[in-house]
Amino acid sequence: MNLISKSKEVFGQLNIKELQKAGIEREDIKVSSHSHHIVTYPPLVALPEINPSKIYSKDSPKFSREMALYLHLPFCTGKCLYCTYITLPNQTKEFIDGYLDAVEKEMDLLLQYPNLQDITVNSIYIGGGTPTYLSVNQLERVLKLLQTRFKVKKDAEITIEAGPETLIGKEGEEKLKIILQNGVNRLSIGFQTFDDNLLKLIRRRHNSKQAIDTYKLARKIGFKNINIDLIPGLPDQTLEIWQNDLEQIGKLNPDSITCYPLSIKQNAIIWQMYTNEKQRFPSRENVILMQIMAQEFFRELNYTEMPAGWFIRKPEKMFPTYKFTKSDDQLALGVSAYSFINDFQYFNHRTVPQYIEALKNNNLPIWKGIKLSNENLMRRMILFGLKTGLSKHLFQSKFGKMPKDIFKEIWGKLENLGLIEEDKNTIQLTYKGKLFADEVSKEFYNEDIKKVIED
């Protein structure tokens, strides 16, 4: 039985209609429908503007803890059809240098506060945009800044996102060498698909050969941990094209693969295409089939899916970037970056001029945020924790009760639908639950947040 036929058989056994009747249905557009896009709680749309002094104060007590560090570099060689991130294509060296000056200023302002003066960074993630759009010297500057301003653990996972077109030729080779020499030990390359026609359609600036050559070059130079991004659900993408994508990945044998379905939002170029040519997009059923194909294919190759949509070859050697630990604090730098510090969820300004202007005036570039109530902290821990495996002991030690005792109705619904399961120590999504990770997560949004989203 081939992969497509096998996946259709699995699909038939999952009783998706039962989920639809229960209100857990794959959403179409407007609100993103996959695990990659629920990354904050509460979501930005539900947050009020906030004065940074509510979060950081010179009178705040010091706390010593580990946290993750994120840096947003919004530069790219172009704008992809589906992109909704804050990006600025084809900027000059001088403009990028000015942005890096602002990032350095943000670091200096933050480190004036006791809250952050005794922290240890256990992972660094540099995203965008396409961080490898920067020059060799700019990349070296960024990496040295992060590692000199902060106390970074020796075994910290340091990840940088890359676009194949930025790592071609002699300059690309130099970029790979400099980031490896400066501590980056995980490279995440955006392939998206191996189909050259689809790559052109979604306005990627590389072809499949260049992507494969970039991967092989990174291996040759010494990267031992490489992630590849793929996107199921692209326009004109068939089940056969997706199967070929998976088979090509199997030949490369990367350390991990992220397969997050396409999300269509009004602020992306692809919105107009979807509005006028909806028939070119895979049906909801076929997108779910593509996810099942990935689950079946990578399971055969002994990859572990953890969290949902992320397949890892040797999970014991991967830093648990998205796993709930005793502290899930994240300090984020740069335009549009979002942080979770001391129970505050907050966002930086979403335009570069606003971001830079705040810093020129010696103000933290914080825009919106809120301190989470105890109830929302519980909801947050559950909706993120389920994707990697929620520790019962950790939850009970923090809140004094078990999730099913607090959210009885929701819990019963999800168990009856076969979306969550538990053993002695852990609660997690089932095989079917991972296909609907975000829909399950949204069950734990409180009513106020649901109302804001619906409005």
Fold and architecture overview:
It is a single chain. This protein is α/β, with parallel strands linked by helices. Helices cover 40% and strands 18% of the residues. The protein contains 18 helices and 17 strands. A nine-stranded mixed sheet has the order 9-10-8-7-6-5-4-1-11. A three-stranded antiparallel sheet has the order 12-13-14, with no helix packed on it. The longest helix has 18 residues. The termini are far apart.
Short synopsis of the structure:
The protein is an alpha/beta fold and 455 residues long.
Radius of gyration: 22 Å
Strand arrangement within the widest β-sheet reads 9-10-8-7-6-5-4-1-11
Overall spatial form: globular
What low-confidence regions span 5 or more consecutive residues with pLDDT below 50?
A: 29-36, 320-326
Let me know the number of strands.
Answer: 17
By secondary-structure content and strand pairing, the structural class works out as alpha/beta
Strand content: 15-25%
Helix content: 25-40%
Q: Report the sheet with the most strands, covering strand number, pairing sense and barrel closure.
A: 9 strands, mixed
pLDDT averaged residue by residue? 91
Task: Please report the distance between the alpha carbons of the first and last residues.
Answer: 46 Å
Q: What's the number of helices? A: 18
